[in-house]
Amino acid sequence: MAQTKREIERKYEVGADRALPDLTGVAGVADVVDKGVVELDAVYWDTPDQRLAAASITLRRRTGGDDAGWHLKLPVSLAEGVRDEVRAPLSATVPRVLAGLVRSRVREAELVPLVRLLSARDLRHLVDADGHLLAEVSVDGVRAERLTRGGRTAAWTEAEVELADDGDPALLDKVEKKLKKAGARRSASPSKLARALTETEPKPPKGQKAEKAAPEGATSSGKKAGKREAVAEAVRDAVGDAPGTAGDHVLAYLRAQRDAIVSLDPAVRRDLPDSVHQMRVATRRMRSAFRTYKKILDRTVTDPVGEELKWLAGELGVDRDQEVLTERFTARIAALPRTLLLGPVRGRLRIWTVARRTGSRRRTVAVLDGKRYLALLDTVDALLAAPPLLPAASAPAAQALPKAVLKDYDRLAARVEHALELPAGQDRDLAMHDARKAAKRARYAGEAAVPALGRPAGRFAKRMKAVQTVLGEHQDSVVARDALRTLAVQAHLAGESAFTWGLLYGQEEAAAADQERELPAVWAEASRGKLRAALGA
Which 8-state DSSP code applies to residue 170? Predict the structure, then answer.
């Protein structure tokens, strides 16, 4: 079973004499305990084209020391030296759980041993007056060996300061000040592996330049055929050398969403808070951009990709929707007086949540392990490597983007006005749900346009978000009432009182009515002023 540890560390280049200053002078450090020298042997694995290294991810099998095993390090904040280290027991091959965490990067490529690092680690513990560990400081004599054909070797000495699990990050600054006074300096490489890959890179044959690996996901576009393809290729050439075009901005936005999906994959597998929601949002933003900017990207190409993104968002929604409902019901139950909690209400909610949550978690991981999901990632990469640009993509962003944004706004206006005309009931619920989706699309369109249009697009997106929030809360109450009805039936069939579930149902009905009354004022505020003039349309 894998274990996770948050790692906060800094690396320094030091002299070959391996000397460090006396760190007992650092505020809070009462003693430096010598822990002796440990011999470490680590083999780092990656794809032959180094996809993990490109994402600042390291995967190693290490022996020696007190944490022998497989270690996967995922970046949290590279600037601050923060990474999550996921550990698994020693085995001959990459553990399945770790292979899953890097699948969105690796896809179908093979993981192979690339570099071996042998380190003689002179380890010291910085402790406080009570002997409590504050940080580990080590001086490592490192020998690196490239394991692939033509690889070279390298050797260096470095110091490393790693904060204890409950340590104060301010201590790192204090230690660094002391080390710098003694002549140490921050390492130019974020990790030992990064330095080893650079210094042991095979030399190209004499007279040849080193070949660079193809970008991840790049594929051959094949032969071009037909008028549309010829036009698109010409536009791509123009966009490539013309920063500020509509195509530039839309593609930059789409790449950001692709990167978010790929980087959030391990977090979803680890069940980190809000990870499913954020990944789902990225899929929706990409799909929304395809539809909003249909004059810039050819829909005959993007529509099939959008349908696959819709599928993925739906699969992720199974997990996310359960998470939202559980949080909502837990908060409502906590707010009720004890006298209104009739029967095992919290126990019933736990049973319902665990049953649905366990199934949804298994389903989510199965989706991420499936061929359809990996094929979607490859398809998105291929689309971004050879985007199906239309002639409008070469237009200035300030000219093309506002028109697309305002079309989404007009679509939202029609749906809101239709919903407000309907009487309360199921038809209005459905109309408000349709309006919510339109508000989300308008908001995403505005957000995508911010780099090109600046503050006006940002204000537009903020207004659309306010509308989306009201409509979203209304839809949450609709979904919650369906779930509460199910819980009430289950309680009744088990011989329990259904009173509390009925009470919560009534609260959700009242909440929906509040949102319906609030919507006209929120919409009036969001649609006031000259939006077209503000966006330059």
Answer: H
Q: Could you tell me the two tokens for 447?
A: 């957000």
Beta-carbon contacts of residue 16 (< 8 Å; ≥ 6 apart)? 157
- DSSP assignment string, 299-312: HHHHHHHHHHHHHH
CATH topology of domain 3-199: Hypothetical Protein Pfu-838710-001 (2.40.320)
Mind listing the pLDDT tens digit for each residue in 85-136?
999 999 999 999 999 999 999 999 999 999 999 999 999 999 999 999 999 9
Q: What is the dihedral of CA 425, 430, 433, 438, to 10 degrees?
A: -130
pLDDT for the residue 208: 60
**3-class SS letters over 58-111:** EEEEEECCCCCEEEEEEEEECCCCEEEEEEECCCCCCCHHHHHHCHHHHCCCCC
Helix (H, G, I), strand (E, B) or coil at 297: strand
CA–CA separation, 363 and 321 (whole Å):
13
- Report the pLDDT averaged over residues 495-524: 96
Distance, CA of 11 to CA of 32 (rounded, Å): 18
Q: Give me the helix-helix angle, 426-453 and 455-493, nearest 10°.
A: 150
Q: Which of 46-55, 204-213, 330-339, 409-418 has the lowest mean pLDDT?
A: 204-213
Closest by CA position to 10, among listed 121, 171, 147, 127: 171
**pLDDT tens by residue, 379-403:** 999 999 999 999 999 999 988 999 9
Whole-number pLDDT of residue 228: 44
Report DSSP state, residue 21: -
Lookup: tokens for 462: 């903020």
Q: How far apart are CA 220 and CA 214, in angstroms?
A: 11
All residues at 6 or more sequence positions from 171 whose CB lies less than 8 Å from its CB, including other chains: 26, 28, 29, 126, 134, 135, 163
* Residue-wise burial string across 127-141, b where 16 or more C-beta atoms lie within 10 A, e elsewhere: beeeeeebbbbbbbb
| Residue 432, H or E segment | helix 426-453
Tell the residue number behind the tokens 């099939």, with chain if given: 304
Q: What is the DSSP string of 158-206?
A: EEEEEE-TT--THHHHHHHHHHHHTT-EE-SSSSHHHHHHHHTPPPPPT
- Bridge-based pairing of strands 112-127 and 69-77 is unpaired
The helix or strand, by DSSP H or E, that contains position 290, with its residue range, turns out to be helix 275-292
Question: Where residue 220 falls among pLDDT bands split at 50, 70, 90?
Answer: very low
Expressed in angstroms, the distance from the first to the final Cα of the chain is 57
| Two tokens, residue 253 | 């936005």
Name the packing angle between helices 371-385 and 345-369 (round to 10°): 60
Nearest to 400 by CA among 318, 457, 471: 457
- The pTM for the full model equals 0.84
Distance (Å, rounded) from C-alpha 103 to C-alpha 88?
16
Q: Is 394 in contact with 239 (CB distance < 8 Å)?
A: yes
Domain residue extents for the chain: 3-199, 225-395, 396-537
Residue 397, judged by CB atoms within 10 A of its CB (0-12, 13-18, 19+), counts as: buried
